[in-house]
């Protein structure tokens, strides 16, 4: 079965699952609008963009590298929504030569500050994987509208965002790689990695009590059994959310090492 998912002839072939994937890439309308444009000191271009999914506005952040045909990275935020943290990471990657779209999974203006709201928003998407995938489609469409080849891109994410990155991998969308930083690693009921196209790089903390090393090991065994190319790295002493600057969980050693490994991984993918 062949399903056209992008106007520029990107196709999805035989990736439909019984319940969760049928609505992927359907019903997403585009209406990109540039809101803010600025220049950083390194000459990267940054702007906010609004795109539509299910007739609702979502606002992402786009950081464009100062070079032609830069590779594309889709960055998915943590459970507090798209904040300065994701913008900072996007800028860091743009300075390394990548075009980065930090996606919005909650909706324009929805940036929860209370834990109860964060749980409610993320739980709603965990329970509606079809919507999660439509939101990913909207973000990929937005990245394509900026002139990127999203099929040759990489999707990454932090915590909740890492979980979402693996959702795209299981959906079978073809990309270079999927990279969760301290994300949820359990496989949802009814899903598998049988259709995954692209390598998976898992970056995790050995001291993570939210996502224990048992889940890390189980995922490794699953990826091996399904013959998905993967690399899995854990850092001693690093707790959940160890990459988040200025938080009580931040681990500078693990963050610096994992960031270097990630940049080396990207460089190898695009050499």
Structure keywords:
271 residues; alpha/beta; nine-stranded mixed beta sheet; 6 helices; 11 strands; 31% helix; disordered N terminus
Stretches where pLDDT is under 50 for at least 5 consecutive residues are: 1-41
Major sheet details: 9 strands, mixed
Distance between the termini: 33 Å
Shape summary: globular
Number of H- or I-type helical stretches: 6
Provide the structure class: alpha/beta
Q: Biggest sheet: strands side by side, in what order?
A: 3-4-5-7-6-8-9-10-11
Mean pLDDT across the residues is 88
Q: What is the number of beta strands?
A: 11
Radius of gyration: 17 Å
Q: What share of the residues does DSSP label as strand, in percent?
A: 15-25%
**Helix residue percentage:** 25-40%
Query: What's the SSE pattern?
Result: EEEEEEHEHHEHEEHEH
């Amino acid at each position: 079965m062949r399903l056209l998912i992008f106007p520029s002839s990107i196709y999805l072939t035989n990736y439909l699952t019984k319940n969760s994937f049928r609505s992927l890439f359907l019903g997403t309308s585009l209406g990109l609008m540039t809101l803010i444009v600025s220049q950083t000191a390194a000459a990267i271009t940054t702007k906010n963009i609004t795109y539509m999914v299910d007739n609702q506005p979502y606002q992402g952040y786009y950081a464009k590298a100062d070079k032609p045909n830069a590779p594309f990275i889709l960055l998915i935020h943590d459970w507090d929504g798209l904040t300065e943290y994701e913008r900072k990471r996007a800028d860091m990657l743009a300075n390394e030569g990548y075009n980065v779209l930090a996606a919005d999974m909650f909706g324009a203006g929805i940036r929860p500050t209370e834990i109860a709201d964060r749980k409610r928003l993320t739980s709603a998407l965990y329970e509606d994987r079809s919507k999660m995938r439509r939101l990913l489609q909207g973000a990929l469409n937005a990245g394509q509208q900026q002139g990127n080849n999203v099929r040759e891109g990489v999707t990454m994410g932090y915590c909740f965002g890492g979980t979402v990155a693996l959702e795209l991998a299981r959906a079978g969308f073809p990309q270079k790689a999927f990279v969760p930083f301290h994300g949820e690693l359990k496989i949802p009921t009814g899903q598998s990695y049988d259709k995954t196209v692209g390598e998976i790089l898992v970056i995790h903390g050995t001291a993570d009590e939210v996502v224990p090393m048992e889940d890390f090991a189980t995922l490794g065994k699953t990826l091996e059994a399904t013959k998905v190319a993967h690399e899995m790295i854990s850092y001693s002493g690093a707790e959940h959310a160890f990459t988040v600057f200025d938080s009580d969980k931040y681990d500078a050693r693990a963050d610096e090492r994992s960031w270097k490994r990630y940049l080396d991984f990207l460089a190898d993918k695009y050499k």
